[in-house]
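User: We ran a pulldown and think these components assemble together. Before we commit to crystallization trials, I'd like a predicted model of the whole complex to look at. Sequences follow.
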Amino acid sequence: MQFNKDLNTSIRYVKGIGPKRAKALKARGIETIHDLLYYFPYAYLDLSKVEKISNLRLIVNSGQWVTVIGTVRTFDLLGRPPRQRFVVVLGDDSGTVPIVFFQSVQYFKNAFKQGEMLAVSGKVTDFHNRPQIVHPSIDRLTSTEEGEEDFEGFLHTKGIVPKYGSSEELRDVNLDVKGIRRIMKSLLDNFLGSVIDPLPKDFRERNQLLTLQQSLSNVHFPESQTVLDAARRRLKFDELFSMQLLLALRRKSLKIEMPGIAFHIESTLARQLVDSLPFKLTKAQIRVINEIAADMRSSKPMNRLLQGDVGSGKTVVSLIAMLIAVDNGYQAAFMAPTEILAEQHYKTLANFMGNLPINVRLLVGGQRSKLRGDILEDVRRGSAQIVVGTHALIQEHVKFGRLGFVVIDEQHRFGVAQRIALKEKAFESIDHTPHPDVLVMTATPIPRTLSLTLYGDLDVSIIDELPTNRQSIQTSLKFEFQRESVFQFLRQQIVLGRQAYIVYPLVEESEKMDLKAATESYEMLKSTVFPDLTIGLIHGRMVPNEKDEIMTAFTEGEINILVATTVIEVGVDIPNATVMVIEHAERFGLAQLHQLRGRVGRGHEQSYCILIVPNWMAKLIKRTFTPFIDAEQEEQRKAVRRIQTMLETADGFKIAEIDLELRGPGEFFGTRQSGLPELQIANLVSDLDILSLARREAFQLIEHDPHLRYPEHQQLRKHFEERMKDALAFVQVG
Ligand code: ADP
Ligand code: MG
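Assistant: Here's a predicted model for the assembly, 734 residues in total across the polymer chains.
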């Protein structure tokens, strides 16, 4: 992780890299020698263990992953749709084996040439007592076209060969896979010696980590699978360790920083609220309230994450905490990610409070300037006791009189920077309040260990129980050709007096198109399908007032069916709505689907979630999948998995796990947003054991040497200062 000066110099110093190549590499984010050393292979082809084709019958159905090398003898498209398959017969000097493709046959049809040499890796299955390999991963050993994989030179060395990602721009300067391998070789020959290991020797030995030099050398050109595994483990450890160090530092700086407020937690207001609720709090809610209250009483600032599935009752919990703050003479701020949500929360909170003497205000963009001025004044004077809003709350000119408690809803949409900005509003309070207590709420359940990782600087409370009055929601799948039956079902429900949502996806790049889809469907439903019913339309481009009118009408039952883009995703709470129809469900992420489904099932009636997907999915849904080799297929596979997950479970934690698996941690967590470095090689799910190790070591280290001052930590310190400047910025502000 730590390097002497050389490694921060330009890749121009690497033999074989001139201005043109340097430019092409820069486009990939590779500028320094360090960057290039850390441009890892995305995969390897293991030529050290190639199986003879005649031996395949011995390992049929063993589940073992094998590689065979042979030439393409014949290929043919067999059968007719939907049972069509494409078969390539591969032969070596010991025999032949069929390679079979069920998916993307149209693509594979044109993908092979007779006589070309392939390395085929996959599992051997059995078809009428003969071995076959289905949807394997394929490497071309002889390149047929420019820019294709070419391993021929390695055939005789029989080693483990790295595969590097290339691009058109890189190929233009002869940095195809082969070219990249060549410069990597020269890079390692000349610069590996200057790599300095930031981890002290006893630290490495204690944790059984290879040296950094060994690891870098082997990740590019592995001596063996065993050493490669060890090298990757070390490099993963480095990534996770840096991340955990950062979290440890962040937490430390939060804890030792300025004192927080020690609230008196005996609150009349909170008591009155609880007594007036039309329901009893669940055990989980009570437990979580106690955890929060304990934090509030302490003079250390609270930084707590409240996790709970959709509908688990987080809002009322946060309200109780806010009332405690208000009873202590402080203001509380509640920040929501969208205007609709802020408005909903505002109303919900106001409703809950009924006739408690609390002044709640709403601050969102697009309010008329007179009203806005009025609100701002109220906030400044401190007479607005609870202020609900969007990021309008953190705009510069917003000043609080005496902010002491901050709730941030749906953390996923806010970055660390915004969290900090809202906290700073407290320091800037007219009354100079100390560090406020912060409660972050998320409805995206995250497995506990992982939430510790992502929010390593926060304490975590979980509401793991839904109120008992909840109905389970029936989820079903329909294809587009079955839409008529969905409409009939909707009508039945409306006749029973219920209401329904029809949601369309809104993908940013094609916002207009999707909006068009939603608008057209709205027109069609209104004029042809349900001319006798009231249909509403709500989308993100409406001005707040319009949205507000529509939502109010829907809440009051004046609208039967609400056509919406995903603006209704979170928080909206209308108990009489019992049907959630999701159009193009395959385009939504799992977390979103789960959130949307959580919009129904909020009242006493049986509720339904209907996922509508295009007809082409019909043939994919039931098939079990084998590894694919092209990206489009991979996307389809994921889409099918998301739909299947929705049909199989309503358990938010389970859904989150699968979501994480499908999307990868980067996207799931929005690491960039969270102020954490992107992970390149480690995986927060599959490398959980390395993660725990890294976490333990990092937190111990910061406990003993919070400023990294010990001599044996100097290399680490340098590494941090050089590589993690941006991330460290958050520590300082935190
Ligand atoms: P979340 O924000 O966690 O998705 P909400 O706070 O919006 O959930 O609560 C969902 C609904 O459940 C609201 O209508 C709320 O009033 C109601 N609710 C909250 N707690 C309980 C409870 N203990 N028993 C019954 N209903 C509850
Ligand atoms: Mg809520």
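The chain has 26 helices and 24 strands. That may be worth checking against your pulldown data before setting up trials.

User: Thanks, that helps.
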